[in-house]
């Protein structure tokens, strides 16, 4: 068992939240590399066999650019908040066909007091979103098993913050999962406490999450005609 993140990881991210400016970040870039980026790259490398045991079509790519790591820099071009850096570190375990079309992914979020792991598809464009909704209508038993199984719902929450006020048009009002069709994103997630993230069993915990989230991701892949 290996420890990846430490208290220094959260200490750096909390300090970045207080000093969110380029001069401070560049002065502490080595701390970011040592305590945030490098351990996450090691974790992604170590998760590769665990992910391959779940699906051969998803990738845990440890490259600093072009891989699984999200940039720590914020895109501020159209944002009111011009803070240059995120105060968390995210990583995606992505589908091999992500450059071709909308695909689900696994996601890890590292933030003091706000770590979580999840999977799903975030804000797909309208054609893919309608395809997902129609697939749920056409395959309700599979959706029940993938997203509403008691063991799954005890562990994971379906994101409810990104929904239409009313069900979308064109779907039967009496459909058993009509409320689920209101989602703009189909995401399941659960929080991770800081002690787990800095503890020696993080990889094993995440490997279980990859397995437990697999039926949900598999269903989304089937809806979008993707391999799983």
Question: Which labels suit this protein?
Answer:
8 helices; six-stranded antiparallel beta sheet; 228 residues; alpha+beta; 14% strand
3D architecture notes:
The protein is an alpha+beta fold and 228 residues long. Helices cover 43% and strands 14% of the residues. The protein has a six-stranded antiparallel sheet. The radius of gyration is 19 Å and the shape is globular. The model has no long low-confidence stretch (mean pLDDT 96).
Please provide a brief summary of the model.
This protein is an alpha+beta fold.
- The number of distinct β-strands equals 6
How much β-strand is present in the residues?
A: 5-15%
Overall spatial form: globular
Sheet/helix structural class: alpha+beta
Q: Which spans of ≥5 residues are poorly predicted at pLDDT below 50?
A: none
State the end-to-end CA separation.
28 Å
Global Rg: 19 Å
Biggest β-sheet: strands ordered side by side in the sheet:
1-2-3-4-6-5
Oligomer: single chain
């Amino acid at each position: 068992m290996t420890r990846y993140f430490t208290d220094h990881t959260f200490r750096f991210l909390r300090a970045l939240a207080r000093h969110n400016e380029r001069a401070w970040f560049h002065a502490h870039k080595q701390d970011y590399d040592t305590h945030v980026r490098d351990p996450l790259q090691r974790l992604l490398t170590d998760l590769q066999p665990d992910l391959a045991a779940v699906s051969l079509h998803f990738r845990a790519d440890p490259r600093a650019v072009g891989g699984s790591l999200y940039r720590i820099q914020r895109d501020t071009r159209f944002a009111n908040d011009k803070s240059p850096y995120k105060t968390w570190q995210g990583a995606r375990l992505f589908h091999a066909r992500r450059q071709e079309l909308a695909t689900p992914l696994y996601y890890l979020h590292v933030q003091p007091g706000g770590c979580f792991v999840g999977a799903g598809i975030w804000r797909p464009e309208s054609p893919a979103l309608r395809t997902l909704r129609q697939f749920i209508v056409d395959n309700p038993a599979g959706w029940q098993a993938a997203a509403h199984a008691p063991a799954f719902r005890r562990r994971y929450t379906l994101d409810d913050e990104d929904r239409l006020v009313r069900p979308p048009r064109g779907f039967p009002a009496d459909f058993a999962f009509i409320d689920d069709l209101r989602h703009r994103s189909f995401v399941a997630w659960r929080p991770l406490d800081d002690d787990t993230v800095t503890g020696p069993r993080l990889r094993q915990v995440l490997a279980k999450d990859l397995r437990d989230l697999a039926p949900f991701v598999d269903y989304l892949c089937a809806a979008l005609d993707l391999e799983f």
